[in-house]
Amino acid sequence: MSNAMYNKMWHQTQEALNSLLDKESQNMMESQSNQVFIFQMLATFYIKYVQIFRNLEDVYDQIVHPQKRILIRKILDGVMGRVLELKNEMVELELTEFHYFDDILQDLKLAPQQLDIPIPKYFLKEKLEVIKGREKILAQILADTGLDIPEKKYTVKGIPLEEAVKLIQIAERARQGRLRAMFMKQIFLQEYRAKQAKILGEKVADVGAAALQIQKVWRGFHQCKKTEKQREEEMIFLGMKPPPLFNEVSATVIQAEKVSSLRNEVQIKHEENYKEALVTIKDDLKLIEGLDIKENLQDQIRHWFIECRNLTGTFPEYPNVEEGGSAIIFSNKTPQQVTEDIIANQEEEEKNKKKNKKKATTSKKPKKEKEKKGTKEKNKEEDEGWKMSPSVFLSMMEEGNNVYKDLWKNKDESWNFPQDYDPELIKQEKRKELESEIRVQVDELMRQELKNLKLAVDREKEPPVKAAKKKGGKKKGKKGKKGKRGKKDKDLTADRTIESLYKELVEEGLLIQALKVNLSDYIGEYSYLGTTLRQVSIEPMPSLLDVRQLIALYGILPLGSATVHEKAPLVKSLLLAGPSGVGKKMLVHAICTETGANLFNLSAANIAGKYPGKNGLQMMLHVVIKVARELQPSVVWIGDTEKTFYKKVPSAERMIEPKRLKKQLPKILRLLKPDDRILIVGTTQRPFDAELQSFCRVYQKIILVPRPDYASRLVLWRQIIQRNGGIITNALNISSLAKVTDGFTQGHIVEVVQGVLTDRRIRQQTYKPLTAAEFVTMLTSMSPVYQEEEDSFKDWYAKTPMGKKRALALTGGDTEKEKDKGKKKEKKGKKEKKK
Ligand SMILES: Nc1ncnc2c1ncn2[C@@H]1O[C@H](COP(=O)(O)OP(=O)(O)OP(=O)(O)O)[C@@H](O)[C@H]1O
């Protein structure tokens, strides 16, 4: 697409964002009490923000104007954060991680695909070189240590010469045998035909009857083909089958891809030009306008000296550096206002000092009062109903939106066809920068001038230098703080470089190479009946794509964007629980691939015997967290994490000390700050074996990964067969296959498909199409996930804090609340009557 198209898209998206921000600001004020209404409102906002997010992501990826990109990036981060905030609100309201929007989607005329959370391409693009470099180093270390030997399916074994000769002989004899058999067959057929000719030769050949026979066969065959074709066309016409070139990538799409990669090149070029221009334009401005600015400033300040003296009889005090120098005087204020301000400030400071003293003497009382106030406020909130919690990202988006309206909305860009940087905007920005730089120099000069003036005119002595004292005092304070901090986080490896620690972790097998899988490779289908089922009080099973969305929201977006991680509701740890083969590990690898994160493996089996002892363990965790923090984003994966929290360690596993990490994990979580982009992900097949309390304390978010439902199995079978080289024909009834494989997981499906589709079978497909029976035969030896197992996961989840809360809300909680409300209303009514 063209520059004009992307610009148009941006303007449209900004319009949509603008109206959404207006609605949000209205809603912030109102309080609501109807839960259904609140959820509908939140969900609508969420869906609309996701649409804006999708468009902005596209625009940011393709627009080539460097200054527009800076603004779009800011808004994009804001929108991402807001989406996360709204999700958090919905979770707190509904007490479940999964939400279904099918009814709202219908109202908004959107397809479920439009709810997919996009993964901004800038996550990887901006760090491409760093990631590649790191991958190279990792591969090098693995090669040096011999840890990189890939798992080979078929190991090649050498065989003795005699055996090899025998094998070749067997193959050669078989070939000769086949040839001989073919000759014999031909001879036999020749003889047979000759015999037949002899028998028939006696009869008189009826040419007419023969022609009729041939015609009959040909017409039958011809009509058969024709009917088949007509049936196919009818199916396509009815929409029961896709048209023949439906799955083919069209030439236009290929062309579009080429254009977008070209645009990326232009983007990089414009970015470089812009960075150069920032330096050159500033230098030019300094040369051309620097002197003028300096003289203007000096004149202004001199004028202020004289005005002040004329009005007050004395020369003013020059604002010191910390206050901002002369800049504060000329922020649209008259000199008198400034002096009044200074006097007012001094008075306020004195008042504050007095107040603080009073507070210090009566420090015990306010605590209780505060507590009381707190409870009162809570009660008030409950009475008033639900209100949207304050947002960090709204102001960020509004700021961006205002800049858009002021600068870009009505900007005439007819001169800027290639969409390169706008020098005028840089000049405006740099002029301000230059002015503040020059102002510092001018302030120095003018301070001296004022001193001289005071000496000459008022014959004043030099005032004591306050600033210097203040500075000294502050510095001391800061030093004290730093000292304390230093003591707290002792660096056990201060003498070592990050590179050496990185190498050590790779050699120990704690830092591993993430598999290259994208989140989009996690196949599944949407759940189309979520809301309908909930309306009839049936809790729907989440679909695979719901899980995928949660991974994008909780794992990928915060890890990819530093701003989002810092300000959005923080998720430090994530638990993926589900039966074997539902793709838990795949999701962990996908998080790493999409964000370019390092992957640390702290599974109980992997750390067994490494860094022994208490000190060793501390050292290991210190090194892991240090490297993870320095080379962020990072994912710390704990596979089979229930082992770390075993209620009772099985005797067979006692040797590997599975519970080593148990006490350390909460400590690590406490150490992680919002600016550390580190995510702890645990995966488990048997969460019920773990001690619930400590388990749930460590894992902030718990995601149950379900086995695939019918719709998901249908797409899984189709896509996995195609990915492995299979061709889907009418002979392969995928629907029945999906139906009879209820209970089997993705892992089973992958295994079966890979087992059936050998190289030989793939080659045979042209004359022997695939059938469902082939796959089913292989499945018979595998055991599916039984209903009981699935129920045990559900039961376990109901015992987690979130599950408990939801159960309470669904059964007793709601009715109790309503009763309370009813009572309150009655009381109110009585009071009013009395009045
Ligand atoms: N939604 C999916 N789409 C495509 N492939 C999938 C999907 N889910 C899982 N797979 C594939 O299934 C196989 C098993 O997945 P994985 O090992 O991640 O499961 P797991 O839940 O971690 O299993 P376990 O609990 O036994 O360790 C992998 O080859 C993975 O690529």
UniProtKB/TrEMBL annotation:
Classification via Gene3D superfamilies: 1.10.8.60, P-loop containing nucleotide triphosphate hydrolases
Biased composition (Basic and acidic residues): 368-381, 814-823
Residue stretches of biased makeup (Basic residues): 353-367, 467-487, 824-835
Keyword ATP-binding included in the entry's annotation: yes
Classification of source organism: Eukaryota, Metazoa, Chordata, Craniata, Vertebrata
Keywords: ATP-binding, Nucleotide-binding
Protein name as catalogued: Dynein regulatory complex protein 11
Chain segments carrying region Disordered: 345-386, 456-490, 806-835
InterPro entries attached to this UniProt entry: ATPase_AAA_core (IPR003959), N-DRC_Component (IPR052267), P-loop_NTPase (IPR027417)
Residues of the ATPase AAA-type core domain: 574-689
Membrane spanning residue stretches: none
Single GO MF annotation: ATP binding
Originating species: Neomonachus schauinslandi
Pfam families (UniProt xref): AAA
